[in-house]
Protein backbone atom coordinates (compact mmCIF):
# COMPACT_ATOMS: atom_id res chain seq x y z
CA UNK A 1 0.00 0.00 0.00
CA UNK A 2 1.81 3.06 -1.31
CA UNK A 3 -0.15 5.54 0.80
CA UNK A 4 1.35 4.19 4.04
CA UNK A 5 3.93 6.57 5.50
CA UNK A 6 7.44 5.46 6.57
CA UNK A 7 6.38 5.89 10.21
CA UNK A 8 3.34 3.62 9.83
CA UNK A 9 5.38 1.02 7.93
CA UNK A 10 7.90 0.98 10.80
CA UNK A 11 5.10 0.68 13.36
CA UNK A 12 3.63 -2.27 11.46
CA UNK A 13 7.04 -3.98 11.48
CA UNK A 14 7.09 -3.89 15.30
CA UNK A 15 3.94 -5.99 15.59
CA UNK A 16 5.01 -9.57 16.25
CA UNK A 17 3.58 -12.62 14.48
CA UNK A 18 1.92 -13.88 17.67
CA UNK A 19 0.19 -10.54 18.31
CA UNK A 20 -3.01 -11.44 16.51
CA UNK A 21 -5.45 -8.92 17.98
CA UNK A 22 -4.45 -5.28 17.44
CA UNK A 23 -6.05 -1.90 18.16
CA UNK A 24 -5.22 1.34 16.37
CA UNK A 25 -6.26 4.37 18.42
CA UNK A 26 -6.77 7.56 16.43
CA UNK A 27 -6.84 5.48 13.26
CA UNK A 28 -7.83 8.42 11.02
CA UNK A 29 -8.62 6.74 7.65
CA UNK A 30 -7.67 3.23 8.89
CA UNK A 31 -4.65 2.91 6.61
CA UNK A 32 -2.59 0.98 9.17
CA UNK A 33 -5.37 -1.54 10.00
CA UNK A 34 -6.03 -2.09 6.29
CA UNK A 35 -2.32 -2.67 5.67
CA UNK A 36 -2.20 -5.20 8.52
CA UNK A 37 -5.36 -6.98 7.39
CA UNK A 38 -4.42 -7.10 3.69
CA UNK A 39 -1.00 -8.51 4.56
CA UNK A 40 -2.58 -11.16 6.82
CA UNK A 41 -0.18 -10.01 9.53
CA UNK A 42 -2.89 -10.05 12.20
CA UNK A 43 -6.17 -11.85 12.80
CA UNK A 44 -8.31 -8.86 13.79
CA UNK A 45 -7.94 -5.08 14.16
CA UNK A 46 -10.01 -2.57 16.09
CA UNK A 47 -9.71 0.82 14.38
CA UNK A 48 -11.00 3.66 16.53
CA UNK A 49 -11.28 7.41 16.06
CA UNK A 50 -13.00 10.08 18.10
CA UNK A 51 -13.90 12.24 15.09
CA UNK A 52 -16.95 11.49 12.93
CA UNK A 53 -15.50 12.39 9.52
CA UNK A 54 -12.35 10.18 9.72
CA UNK A 55 -14.54 7.44 11.21
CA UNK A 56 -16.84 7.52 8.17
CA UNK A 57 -13.90 7.59 5.73
CA UNK A 58 -12.31 4.68 7.61
CA UNK A 59 -15.53 2.67 7.34
CA UNK A 60 -15.66 3.26 3.59
CA UNK A 61 -11.97 2.43 3.12
CA UNK A 62 -12.34 -0.85 5.01
CA UNK A 63 -15.31 -1.75 2.82
CA UNK A 64 -13.54 -0.73 -0.41
CA UNK A 65 -10.47 -2.84 0.41
CA UNK A 66 -12.61 -5.87 1.23
CA UNK A 67 -11.39 -6.33 4.80
CA UNK A 68 -14.64 -5.81 6.74
CA UNK A 69 -14.36 -9.32 8.19
CA UNK A 70 -11.08 -8.52 9.95
CA UNK A 71 -11.48 -4.84 10.93
CA UNK A 72 -14.04 -3.19 13.18
CA UNK A 73 -14.18 0.60 12.87
CA UNK A 74 -15.21 2.31 16.13
CA UNK A 75 -16.24 5.92 16.80
CA UNK A 76 -15.02 6.45 20.36
CA UNK A 77 -12.54 8.55 22.36
CA UNK A 78 -9.26 6.83 23.16
CA UNK A 79 -9.50 3.54 25.05
CA UNK A 80 -12.94 4.06 26.56
CA UNK A 81 -14.56 1.50 24.28
CA UNK A 82 -12.18 -1.20 25.58
CA UNK A 83 -13.53 -0.83 29.12
CA UNK A 84 -17.09 -1.49 27.96
CA UNK A 85 -16.33 -4.88 26.37
CA UNK A 86 -16.18 -8.16 28.23
CA UNK A 87 -13.61 -10.86 27.45
CA UNK A 88 -11.56 -8.46 25.32
CA UNK A 89 -7.82 -9.03 25.03
CA UNK A 90 -5.70 -6.81 22.80
CA UNK A 91 -2.23 -8.15 22.11
CA UNK A 92 -0.87 -4.84 20.83
CA UNK A 93 -2.36 -1.34 20.89
CA UNK A 94 -1.01 1.37 18.57
CA UNK A 95 -1.24 5.05 19.57
CA UNK A 96 0.39 7.34 17.04
CA UNK A 97 0.09 10.72 15.37
CA UNK A 98 -0.72 12.90 18.39
CA UNK A 99 1.19 14.69 21.13
CA UNK A 100 2.38 13.14 24.39
CA UNK A 101 -0.15 15.10 26.49
CA UNK A 102 -3.03 13.63 24.49
CA UNK A 103 -1.47 10.15 24.57
CA UNK A 104 -1.15 10.31 28.36
CA UNK A 105 -4.83 11.27 28.64
CA UNK A 106 -5.68 8.19 26.55
CA UNK A 107 -3.44 5.98 28.70
CA UNK A 108 -5.41 6.89 31.81
CA UNK A 109 -7.91 4.29 30.57
CA UNK A 110 -5.25 1.57 30.34
CA UNK A 111 -6.37 -1.80 31.65
CA UNK A 112 -5.25 -5.42 31.86
CA UNK A 113 -7.14 -6.01 28.60
CA UNK A 114 -4.12 -4.60 26.75
CA UNK A 115 -0.79 -6.47 26.79
CA UNK A 116 1.47 -4.03 24.95
CA UNK A 117 1.57 -0.63 23.26
CA UNK A 118 3.36 0.80 20.26
CA UNK A 119 3.54 4.56 20.80
CA UNK A 120 4.82 7.25 18.45
CA UNK A 121 4.25 10.79 19.68
CA UNK A 122 4.46 13.97 17.62
CA UNK A 123 6.19 15.61 20.59
CA UNK A 124 8.90 14.56 23.06
CA UNK A 125 8.51 10.97 24.30
CA UNK A 126 10.02 11.64 27.75
CA UNK A 127 6.60 11.99 29.48
CA UNK A 128 5.53 8.64 27.99
CA UNK A 129 8.65 6.92 29.31
CA UNK A 130 7.99 8.45 32.72
CA UNK A 131 4.52 6.87 32.61
CA UNK A 132 6.11 3.52 31.70
CA UNK A 133 8.53 3.86 34.64
CA UNK A 134 5.81 4.85 37.09
CA UNK A 135 3.67 1.90 35.98
CA UNK A 136 6.67 -0.46 36.34
CA UNK A 137 6.22 -1.58 32.73
CA UNK A 138 9.05 -2.35 30.29
CA UNK A 139 10.47 -1.00 27.04
CA UNK A 140 10.57 -3.88 24.55
CA UNK A 141 11.76 -1.95 21.48
CA UNK A 142 12.75 1.58 20.50
CA UNK A 143 13.44 2.83 16.99
CA UNK A 144 13.83 6.11 15.14
CA UNK A 145 12.32 6.82 11.74
CA UNK A 146 12.47 9.86 9.48
CA UNK A 147 9.17 10.76 7.86
CA UNK A 148 8.65 13.89 5.76
CA UNK A 149 11.73 15.56 7.25
CA UNK A 150 10.77 14.83 10.89
CA UNK A 151 12.54 12.25 13.07
CA UNK A 152 10.09 10.30 15.21
CA UNK A 153 10.72 7.98 18.15
CA UNK A 154 8.66 4.80 18.22
CA UNK A 155 8.60 2.82 21.45
CA UNK A 156 7.04 -0.54 22.21
CA UNK A 157 5.84 -0.87 25.79
CA UNK A 158 5.49 -4.38 27.17
CA UNK A 159 3.77 -4.99 30.49
CA UNK A 160 5.64 -8.21 31.21
CA UNK A 161 9.20 -8.15 29.83
CA UNK A 162 11.88 -5.88 28.36
CA UNK A 163 14.16 -3.08 29.54
CA UNK A 164 13.34 -1.18 32.70
CA UNK A 165 13.74 2.59 32.82
CA UNK A 166 15.94 3.47 35.77
CA UNK A 167 17.60 6.85 35.19
CA UNK A 168 16.75 10.39 34.07
CA UNK A 169 18.89 9.87 30.95
CA UNK A 170 16.99 6.72 30.03
CA UNK A 171 13.69 8.54 30.51
CA UNK A 172 14.84 11.29 28.17
CA UNK A 173 16.66 9.33 25.45
CA UNK A 174 15.39 5.76 25.87
CA UNK A 175 17.27 2.80 27.40
CA UNK A 176 17.57 1.04 24.02
CA UNK A 177 18.21 4.06 21.78
CA UNK A 178 21.00 5.21 24.13
CA UNK A 179 22.83 1.93 23.57
CA UNK A 180 22.55 2.17 19.78
CA UNK A 181 23.28 5.83 19.00
CA UNK A 182 23.25 6.50 15.26
CA UNK A 183 23.08 9.52 12.97
CA UNK A 184 19.30 9.80 13.29
CA UNK A 185 19.66 9.97 17.07
CA UNK A 186 22.24 12.75 16.81
CA UNK A 187 20.25 14.68 14.19
CA UNK A 188 17.08 14.50 16.29
CA UNK A 189 18.71 15.83 19.43
CA UNK A 190 20.74 18.50 17.63
CA UNK A 191 17.41 19.84 16.32
CA UNK A 192 15.98 19.69 19.81
CA UNK A 193 18.97 21.67 21.13
CA UNK A 194 18.29 24.35 18.54
CA UNK A 195 14.65 24.59 19.66
CA UNK A 196 15.63 24.89 23.33
CA UNK A 197 18.25 27.57 22.60
CA UNK A 198 15.62 29.64 20.75
CA UNK A 199 13.25 29.30 23.70
CA UNK A 200 15.98 30.33 26.17
CA UNK A 201 16.79 33.46 24.18
CA UNK A 202 13.17 34.62 24.44
CA UNK A 203 12.60 33.70 28.09
CA UNK A 204 13.05 36.39 30.78
CA UNK A 205 16.04 35.71 33.05
CA UNK A 206 13.81 35.24 36.12
CA UNK A 207 11.44 32.81 34.42
CA UNK A 208 11.33 29.55 36.40
CA UNK A 209 11.18 27.51 33.18
CA UNK A 210 14.66 28.69 32.24
CA UNK A 211 16.32 26.47 34.84
CA UNK A 212 14.43 23.40 33.55
CA UNK A 213 15.39 24.09 29.94
CA UNK A 214 19.04 24.59 30.90
CA UNK A 215 19.11 21.22 32.69
CA UNK A 216 17.58 19.58 29.63
CA UNK A 217 20.13 21.26 27.37
CA UNK A 218 23.00 20.05 29.57
CA UNK A 219 21.73 16.47 29.37
CA UNK A 220 21.36 16.63 25.58
CA UNK A 221 24.84 18.10 25.19
CA UNK A 222 26.29 15.28 27.26
CA UNK A 223 25.21 12.67 24.71
CA UNK A 224 25.26 14.48 21.38
CA UNK A 225 28.65 16.15 21.91
CA UNK A 226 30.23 12.87 23.02
CA UNK A 227 29.03 11.04 19.91
CA UNK A 228 29.82 13.84 17.47
CA UNK A 229 33.42 14.05 18.75
CA UNK A 230 34.10 10.38 18.00
UniProtKB/TrEMBL annotation:
InterPro entries: SAM-dependent_MTases_sf, TrmK. GO terms for biological process: methylation. Keywords: Methyltransferase, Transferase. GO terms for molecular function: tRNA (adenine(22)-N1)-methyltransferase activity. It holds the Pfam family TrmK. This is tRNA: m1A22 methyltransferase. It comes from Spiroplasma alleghenense. The gene is trmK.
